[in-house]
Write a structure and sequence with these properties.
The chain is α/β, with parallel strands linked by helices. The chain has 14 helices and 12 strands.
Length: 524
C-alpha cells in the first residue's frame, strides 16, 4: 500500500456509516468562510478483471509511459447561497460529509513531470461523467498530469449504477434537514434550457437526498491537496505544481460560479490562490450555487467576473453561446498577477469539431457497454429535417488557448488580446456576404469558406447546442477558387496568420493545411 494512503477495505465500513444527514443547517451568515481543509485520500482503488474506473484509459496511458489511478476524496463541505444580490456568501446547510472520486493520469517516472497539473471538472450534462485532457498529445509529450473530478450528484449516482461495489463509498448526502430540501432539485439551468430542462430533470435520478452544492468545497479542497505535501498520496515523488482548472459547457458554468464566489476565498497558507490559472470553455454563465437556488439572471452583475482575478482566467466560447454570452461579455481586465481575457470563435457550434482527417481523441471516451451500464434514458435534440449539423473544427483553438494559459501562468507571456464576434444594434451576430460571423477568433474555415456556419439553431433549448452548416454549391466554389491550387494557397495563408497570432499550434497548422490539400475544392 502506498505510504500515506488509506486502505479502501479498511475505510469501507466507516464510509458507509457516513451517508446520513449530519444534522441541522448552520445559521446563515454573510461572507461565509469556506472549509479550508485538505481532504482525506482513499486509494488507489484496485483495478481487477471485473472492475475498472469509468472513463478509464489504462492501455493508452501505459503505452505513453503513464499511470492511471482512481482515488476517493473524503471531507466536509458546506452548502452555500448568495447573500442577497452580492458576491457575498452564506452557509445554508452543513458542514456535511462527502466522498467523491478523482481519476489521475500521471507520468510513471516523476522525473518526467513538467510541473503542470490540469484539473478537469468532469462534465455532467448527459448525467454521466465526461471529460478528457485538453491536449492529450502534448500532455504526454510534456509530462503533464491530468485529474478529472466528479462534480455532480447525478453523475455520482451513475457511477454507482456502473459498478455498485466499486463506487459504494461515494457520498453526496444532503446535509440539510428534510424540511429545508427542495422536492425537485435543479439538474441543469432553466435559463438555458427552458422546457427542455424539465425534460432532462425528469429523466435523471436527481434527489432531495443528495446536494450538488457540496461541489465548491470539493473543488477547493482538491486544490489545497495538490498545493500541499499531501499530494504525494496521489502524485508520489512529484514536486510542487502549477495547477490549472478547466471545464467545458456546464463545467464552464461551474468555473464562472467558482471564480465569482470562491476563488478569492480558497487560499493556500501563504495567501495564494489554490488554482494558478483557468480555462473556461463554452460556458460563459453562472450555474445555480446549490440545487434549490434560483438561476442567477442573465443581466445580474454577478454574471461578469468583477473584479479582475489575481490569477489568469481565460474564457473561450463559440458563436453558439452568443444569445446569452452577450450578457457576460466584458473587456479584457489585466492585473499584475492575472486578469481575464475573453475569446469567441466565429462560426463555431457549442461542440468543438476536430480537423478533417484527424481522429477524435479517444482518451476519456467510455465504451458503449460502460455508457449503457451508467446511463438512464435521456431526451436529446434532433436535427431538423433538411439541415446539416455544424461540424466547424475549432478544437485547435481550444488547444492553443490552453498552451497560452500555461505560458501566461508560468512565464508571464500574455495571451492574444480578447476578441469577440461583432453584434448589430439588436444584439444579433453580424454576418458577411457568405453568411458567416464577422469578428471573433477566425480560422481559415470562415476566412476561406466552403460553407456558411451558424453556431446555434435557437436561443435556448436543445437548439442552442446544435448549429447548422450550409455547403456552398459547386458554382459558388468555382467562382471563389478557380482551381484547387488557388484554394490551397488562400487556406495556407489564412492558417499561417492564425499560427502567427498564436491561436493554434504548429502541429495543428500542419494538419489543417494537409486537410485543405486533400479536400476536393473546387469539385472536379
Amino acid at each position: 500500500m502506498r505510504r500515506g494512503a488509506t486502505s479502501l477495505a479498511a475505510c469501507g465500513a466507516a464510509l458507509m456509516l457516513a451517508t446520513g444527514s449530519p444534522g441541522a443547517a448552520a445559521v446563515a451568515t454573510p461572507s461565509a468562510k469556506v472549509i479550508l481543509a485538505v481532504p482525506e485520500v482513499i486509494g488507489p482503488v484496485p483495478v481487477t478483471a471485473t472492475s475498472h474506473p469509468f472513463l478509464d484509459a489504462k492501455a493508452a496511458m501505459e503505452a505513453a509511459g503513464y499511470v492511471e489511478e482512481e482515488f476517493f476524496l473524503r471531507g466536509r463541505a458546506n452548502v452555500y447561497d448568495w447573500a442577497g444580490a452580492t458576491r457575498d456568501l452564506k452557509v445554508v446547510a452543513g458542514p456535511g460529509r462527502y466522498v467523491t472520486r478523482i481519476l489521475v493520469r500521471r507520468p510513471r517516472d516523476p522525473a518526467r513531470f513538467s510541473g503542470n497539473v490540469e484539473v478537469n471538472i468532469l462534465n455532467a450534462s448527459n448525467a454521466i461523467d465526461a471529460g478528457a485532457p485538453m491536449d492529450a498529445r502534448r500532455m504526454v509529450q510534456q509530462g503533464d498530469v491530468w485529474i478529472g473530478i466528479t462534480t455532480k450528484a447525478l453523475t455520482a449516482a451513475a457511477l454507482k449504477r456502473f459498478d455498485p461495489q466499486r463506487y459504494a463509498p461515494i457520498d453526496w448526502s444532503n446535509p440539510a434537514p428534510p424540511a429545508m430540501r427542495c422536492a425537485k432539485p435543479h439538474t441543469i439551468s432553466t435559463l438555458l434550457f427552458g422546457d427542455d430542462a424539465a425534460a432532462l430533470a425528469n429523466s435523471s435520478d436527481a434527489s432531495p437526498e443528495t446536494e450538488d452544492g457540496l461541489v465548491w468545497d470539493m473543488i477547493g479542497q482538491l486544490g489545497l491537496l495538490l498545493k500541499s505535501e499531501q499530494r504525494q498520496k496521489i502524485l508520489p515523488g512529484f514536486g510542487k505544481p502549477w495547477v490549472y482548472m478547466d471545464g467545458t459547457s456546464q463545467s464552464g458554468e461551474y468555473m464562472r460560479t467558482w471564480m465569482v464566489g470562491f476563488h478569492d476565498r480558497y487560499r493556500t497558507p501563504d495567501g495564494k490562490p489554490v488554482y494558478d490559472g483557468y480555462l473556461e470553455i463554452v460556458g460563459p454563465l453562472q450555474i445555480h450555487i446549490n440545487q434549490c437556488a434560483a438561476d442567477v439572471a442573465f443581466a445580474d452583475p454577478r454574471q461578469k467576473v468583477i473584479p479582475a482575478p489575481d490569477a489568469p482566467y481565460m474564457v473561450l466560447y463559440s458563436e453558439a453561446e452568443t444569445w446569452f454570452g452577450r450578457y457576460t461579455r466584458q473587456p479584457d481586465m489585466l492585473t499584475p498577477k492575472g486578469g481575464i481575457v475573453t475569446y469567441q470563435v466565429a462560426g463555431g457550434p457549442h461542440g468543438r469539431g476536430e480537423i478533417p482527417g484527424v481522429a477524435p481523441e479517444q482518451i476519456g471516451r467510455p465504451s458503449a457497454a460502460d455508457v449503457a451500464k451508467a446511463s438512464l434514458p435521456r431526451p436529446t435534440g434532433v436535427m431538423p429535417a433538411g439541415l446539416v449539423r455544424n461540424d466547424y473544427p475549432w478544437a485547435p483553438v481550444a488547444r492553443g488557448a490552453y498552451h497560452n494559459l500555461q505560458l501566461w501562468v508560468r512565464q508571464g507571456v500574455m495571451p492574444p488580446p480578447g476578441t469577440l464576434v461583432e453584434l448589430d444594434s439588436a444584439g444579433e451576430v453580424k454576418r458577411d456576404q457568405f453568411g458567416n460571423a464577422v469578428g471573433g477568433v477566425r480560422l481559415p474555415y470562415v476566412e476561406v469558406p466552403v460553407a456558411a456556419y451558424r453556431g446555434a439553431l435557437s436561443g435556448g433549448g436543445f437548439g442552442s447546442v446544435m448549429g447548422s452548416k450550409t455547403a456552398f454549391t459547386p458554382d459558388q466554389l468555382k467562382a471563389l477558387y478557380p482551381d484547387h491550387a488557388a484554394y490551397v494557397a488562400k487556406f495556407t495563408a489564412s492558417t499561417d496568420r492564425a499560427l502567427a497570432g498564436r491561436w493554434i499550434s504548429p502541429e495543428d497548422a500542419a494538419a489543417m493545411k494537409k486537410a485543405a490539400e486533400d479536400a476536393a475544392v473546387p469539385p472536379q
